[in-house]
Amino acid sequence: MPRFQIKPYTVLITATGKSPITLSLRPVPLLVGLGVLAGLPIAWIALLLYQNVQLAQRNQNLSETASEVLTELNAIGNEIEVLKHRAGLPDHSGDSTRLPDRDGDKIPPRGGIAQAAPAEAMFDEARRQLPSLETMLSRAVKPALEQTLEAEAEQAAAFPSGKPLAGEPSISSEFGLRPNPFGLRGYEMHEGVDFAGPVGKPILATAEGVVVRADYNGGYGNHVKIDHGYSYETLYAHLSDLEVKIGDRVQRGDVVGYLGSTGRSSGPHLHYSIYRNGQAVNPRYYLKLAETNQETK
User: Fold this and answer.
1) How far, in Å, CA of 103 to CA of 150, rounded?
2) Nearest to 58 by CA among 119, 127, 126, 122
3) Residue 37: what are its φ and ψ, rounded to 5°?
4) Residue 139 DSSP label
5) Low-confidence ranges of the chain (pLDDT < 70)
6) How many Cα atoms are found within 13 Å in the side-chain-facing hemisphere of 210?
7) pLDDT value at position 269?
8) How far apart are CA 107 and CA 117, in angstroms?
9) Residue 77, pLDDT score
10) Within 10 Å of residue 157's Cβ, how many Cβ atoms?
11) Are 187 and 177 in contact (CB under 8 A)?
12) Contact 216, 250 (CB under 8 A)
């Protein structure tokens, strides 16, 4: 079977009085060239489409990033409002520098055609909000919060929650109405809790404060009274010896004296009272004592 072959062609162009022009045409290179020329517009269009897709994807990613930045910035603004409330500063939650919090703030009625926000506009809004948030945090919130935390720490240190004796205390008399402790007829009000123990056992301050009494009293014997501030005072009575004097500042756990049986006492014990606004309150609620600690005396 004969093979099909594409033969070259010769084109002769003549004109009167002119030398003839001869063109040799090779079909294969010619067809290849025409194909390349025809494919160039298609390739160019495909390249443009690819670039547009890539640009659209980058714009989408940029918009999502801008939205995330603005959302995080709004969350920071909400946290700053919480810190302002903790610090006792006035609430400015209606400030126009904050966007509505979709999770917390009540969004007023609104609507309209939804249009995607440009990434540039969202980044501009973030740049606008950031300086005011930084200024508010550094100049107002931080100093006020530090003062609040310091005051809270002082109040916590002044709260009489410590135990007046080391170890597990043995309660010999509860707060409130009780029979006469010397076996006589009748009842009396007891403004504290009595802890039985050996003479000489260290008695500990239950909170930070200033000693306002450290002397002998006929009923309480050797006793110490501490003013803790914040309307709290504590009393430690029937001590065998005192370790502090009036005006001393003590910390929670400092030794103020030693257990004894001075004053109106039927045996070695510590009488411990807590006063709030000048009124005796039950120390059990502050010490979180177990109900099984009581002994009959």
Assistant:
1) 32
2) 119
3) -60, -40
4) I
5) 1-62, 87, 91-108, 110-116, 119, 123, 183, 289-297
6) 6
7) 96
8) 19
9) 73
10) 16
11) yes
12) no
- Counted residue by residue, the chain has a size of 297
User: For residues 117 and 59, what is the distance between their CA atoms, to the nearest angstrom?
Assistant: 12
**Per-residue pLDDT tens for 39-64?**
566 666 666 666 666 666 666 666 77
Residue 264 burial (CB count, 10 A): 15
User: What is the C-alpha end-to-end distance of the chain, expressed in Å?
Assistant: 131
State the Cα–Cα distance between residues 157 and 167, nearest whole angstrom: 21
Q: What is d(CA 153, CA 256) in angstroms, rounded to the nearest whole number?
A: 23
| Gap between the Cα atoms of 199 and 86, Å rounded | 47
Cβ-based neighbours of 197, under 8 Å, separated by 6 or more: 165, 169, 170, 259, 268, 269, 270
Give φ, ψ of 91 to 5 degrees.
-85, 125
What residue ranges define each of the domains in the chain, with the CATH number in brackets?
28-100+116-158 (no CATH), 170-293 (2.70.70.10)
User: What does 48-63 look like in DSSP terms, one character per residue?
Assistant: HHHHHHHHHHHHHHHH
> What tokens were used for 77?
């603004």
pLDDT of residue 178: 85
Which residue do the tokens 């010619």 mark? 30
Q: Select from 190, 184, 159 the least CA-distant residue to 294.
A: 190
73: CB partners within 8 A, 6+ apart: 126, 129, 130, 133
Helical residues (DSSP H) of the chain, grouped into ranges: 27-87, 119-136, 142-158, 284-287
**Residue in the block written with tokens 């005051």:** 151
Q: Which two tokens stand for residue 151?
A: 């005051």
Question: What CA–CA distance (Å, rounded) separates 155 from 35?
Answer: 89
